[in-house]
Known about the structure:
By secondary structure, this protein is of the alpha/beta class. It has 2 domains: about 1-155 and about 300-345, Quinone Oxidoreductase, Chain A, domain 1 (Alpha-Beta Complex); about 160-295, Rossmann fold. About 25% of the residues lie in helices and about 25% in strands. The strands form 4 sheets. Strands 3, 6, 7, 8, 9, 16 and 17 form a 7-stranded mixed beta sheet that branches. Helix 4 (about 160-170) crosses helix 5. Belongs to the zinc-containing alcohol dehydrogenase family. Keywords: Metal-binding, Oxidoreductase, Zinc. It holds the Pfam family ADH_N. It comes from Candidatus Nitrosotenuis cloacae. GO terms for molecular function: adenyl nucleotide binding; anion binding; oxidoreductase activity; zinc ion binding.
Amino acid sequence: xxxxxxxxxxxxxxxxxxxxxxxxxxxxxxxxxxxxxxxxxxxxxxxxxxxxxxxxxxxxxxxxxxxxxxxxxxxxxxxxxxxxxxxxxxxxxxxxxxxxxxxxxxxxxxxxxxxxxxxxxxxxxxxxxxxxxxxxxxxxxxxxxxxxxxxxxxxxxxxxxxxxxxxxxxxxxxxxxxxxxxxxxxxxxxxxxxxxxxxxxxxxxxxxxxxxxxxxxxxxxxxxxxxxxxxxxxxxxxxxxxxxxxxxxxxxxxxxxxxxxxxxxxxxxxxxxxxxxxxxxxxxxxxxxxxxxxxxxxxxxxxxxxxxxxxxxxxxxxxxxxxxxxxxxxxxxxxxxxxxxxxxxxxxx
Length: 349
C-alpha cells in the first residue's frame, strides 16, 4: 500500500510502498477514505512540544520513528480478524484512535484517552496517512451512516476535543462563554456550544476571516485579539462581570493571559491547545477569585458516539475546506503550519 511516513522529525515525509497489514483475531483493516490533518500531526512531525521550560521530544514519550501519522480516520472495512463481532466487510466506520493499555485506572473506566501508557493510532502506532489502517480492536470502531464521510473524520479528534472541552466547562450552567481560537477546533467548539448550551458565545482570534466564519456558525460576538482594547471589549460583552467560562483552543501565552484577565470570580478556564510556552501566574488571584483552571485532552469513546449522533441529527456540521492527495501530505502539513487552512483539511488516500 501507499503510505506517507515520518522517517525522522523535521524531514519531509517519505511517500512509498509499504506492506499492507492483515488483521488477526480482534483486528480490523480499514480502507482509508479520509484522514484529518491535525496540529498534533505537526507536533509529531516537528518532533515535540514547547513546554515553556524547554523542548519535550515525542521520542521521550515513547514515539518511535518511522511512523505513519494520522489519527482522524474514516473509511470502509476491508478485512476482519477471526474474532471480530458486530463489524462486517463493507461497513463505513469512524476510528476511535485514542487507544489505551487496557489495564490502568483510566482505561478500566473507559477513559482510554487519559491512559498512562497510550498506544494512540497515528502517534504510537501507524495511523491513517496511508491507503489502509490496521485497527487493533473492533471495539474502537463506530459505524457511520447518514453523514458525509470526509466530514466525519474530524469528529475523532478536533470535534471530540471541542465537545469534551465544552462539557468539562460545565457549559450548561454558564452564561458568558469566551472561546479563544477560530481554527478547526474553535469552529467546531462554537457549533457544539451553540447546540448544547444557551451561552452568550464570544469568539476571539487574530484573523478576521476566521472570526466571521465563527459568527456564521453561531458565535454571538467576535473580538480580534490584536485590538488594543480587546480585554475591555470582551468584558463589556460579558456585562462588565467577566466570562463564566473560558475555553482556550490555542493555549499560547497571549491567549492564556487574556483569558485570565477576563474570567470572572468562580469562573472555569479550560486549556486545550498545544501551542506551548509558559506564563507568570499571580497565585493569590486563583484562591481569591476561586477560579478553576483545567486541561481537556480529547474524549472517550462514548463521547465520540454522542458527538457522532449530533452530526447525524444535523446539529453540527464538520467543515472540510481543503482536500489533498496522499502524495501532497507534506504540502498539507506546511499549509496547516502556515495558517492557510480554514476549518479542517483532509487527505484522501
